[in-house]
Amino acid sequence: MQTAPQPAFEDVLAAAARIAPHAHATPVLRSRGIDAIAGCSLHFKAEPLQRAGAFKFRGACNAVWSLDDAAAARGVVTHSSGNHGGALALAARTRGIPCHVVVPEGAVAAKLAAIEAYGAILHRCAPNIQAREAKCAQVQADTGAELVHPYTDPRVIAGQGTAAMELFNAAGALDALVVPVGGGGLASGTAIAARALAPECRVFGAEPSGAADTFESLRRGEHVTDFVPDTICDGLRGTLGAPDFELLREHHVEVLTVDDADTIAAMRLLWQRMKLLVEPSSAIALAMVLGNRERFAGKRVGVILSGGNVDLDALPW
Amino acid sequence: MQTAPQPAFEDVLAAAARIAPHAHATPVLRSRGIDAIAGCSLHFKAEPLQRAGAFKFRGACNAVWSLDDAAAARGVVTHSSGNHGGALALAARTRGIPCHVVVPEGAVAAKLAAIEAYGAILHRCAPNIQAREAKCAQVQADTGAELVHPYTDPRVIAGQGTAAMELFNAAGALDALVVPVGGGGLASGTAIAARALAPECRVFGAEPSGAADTFESLRRGEHVTDFVPDTICDGLRGTLGAPDFELLREHHVEVLTVDDADTIAAMRLLWQRMKLLVEPSSAIALAMVLGNRERFAGKRVGVILSGGNVDLDALPW
């Protein structure tokens, strides 16, 4: 299934120490208004306030600072036109090493500009998985750069687990913790942290109805990879990673699906009540709570608001 | 010119103690990215995170909790379809007293719904100053409610000064402090606090080019009231108050004007880099700094981001 060792809680602890000089310990926010609407006590981990605007910086930073000096000097490479690309570029900059990002033709120009602004070298390829992997392999061969996969790399998964760790430390005991699910890196890291720090806390994944490969994989008990995503949640269109599938199954993470309309309503509610710019791929976690009120009624619920990289070019002003 | 006594720093101190149990001490936020763009060290007071989403809650809360029990029981009244209306309604709710808000026909439905959601009683009138004042007088006569004017009431001005007080306490010495100017309540309260706490700190007002009555009033040395506002900054369309004019002149507050296009660019920058939902009437303060870089180069500059009540119905989603 997969060959890299699965990360354990010790790896999350080590990641926390490793990224502490570089990453923000983001605040945990509350809203009386949203609590009243949801009928439970919500504790929002505000990762839009993380460097580069998303939790992705945690895993990328842990990977970059896990390298020995010789490997680091050769740089890192990944394929992502989204938050992971920017996060890895900024993490590489914190260590002063090269970062290569393979991006598909047709990716949103504003996102590519953001990745370049963090100092990464862009490599363009055709918009399909074969071209992407071939280009990555070529960059690795040409430069000796180390591949940092967005959600299957165990260093990345361990780094993502630090968000939940901080949330438990700040908010105290939680009955449930809800995170968005795309490739599964955040959900996996969260599950590892929760089992060690709060074994009574249930971990839930929120996944778009239009990209429900994780929901299907867990339901069928086999890794589903053949699907065509159709969702506004651009951060959640990727395919669940193989090690993530194993980790989510092993940790009994429950995944529930959410329609885009409910995600947008939750996003507007977060903007209105918390004044925090969250992207749809984050708001889906609150939408999942609001769509399953009976599951969370009266409980203390943590929600990881994963990022705030909204496409501002879509705004009317 | 005006009969109410002008507020002094003692009144700001008293306001701080009075509102402490009800208002948030909002955080002071930084952004490396925006500092680099501006060429100075910026300290943003995040009033979008204040209750009811704007600094207006400070002044309203101070006014409501300044009333003796008999007056309080009769309630409060104001005319405002914007942030002050919502702020006074919520402040009245913290004391459990009635709040009447006179609103013009044609006001944005979403804003009126927000004011009503805080428990206020709405009174509609024709959209002109005569009808508004007549309706206010009628409500006062009918109910005995106390008028709390949005920016000429000395209790309101003193309350608004608590934002700058908190900013100085959190950020330390500042060379300059920039606030938006509409009716002048925030600028007046800020000037009073700055003179007492940081006499070396210059206070600047940022005003829309399309509603530059304060700029004109200070330039001419006489209170200009005949103008027709034309700006996206809906919180800054009002006319400078008479006591505010005196206070700004007396405290040598310098007002600079900003075009709406620059305000919108600053708003997008704040959304992108700080993930804080600020409204145009707040972003204007950063726009003023960016448009006058030479004035602020290398300095420690405070900026009061006054509110975050963006019209979400204008969003494309």
UniProtKB/TrEMBL annotation, chains A, B:
The keyword Transmembrane does not apply. Keywords: Pyridoxal phosphate. InterPro entries: TrpB-like_PALP, TrpB-like_PALP_sf. It holds the Pfam family PALP. Residues 20-307 form the Tryptophan synthase beta chain-like PALP domain. The keyword Cytoplasm does not apply. Its cofactor is pyridoxal 5'-phosphate. PANTHER family: SERINE / THREONINE RACEMASE FAMILY MEMBER (PTHR43050), SERINE RACEMASE (PTHR43050:SF1). This is Pyridoxal-phosphate dependent enzyme. It comes from Luteimonas soli.
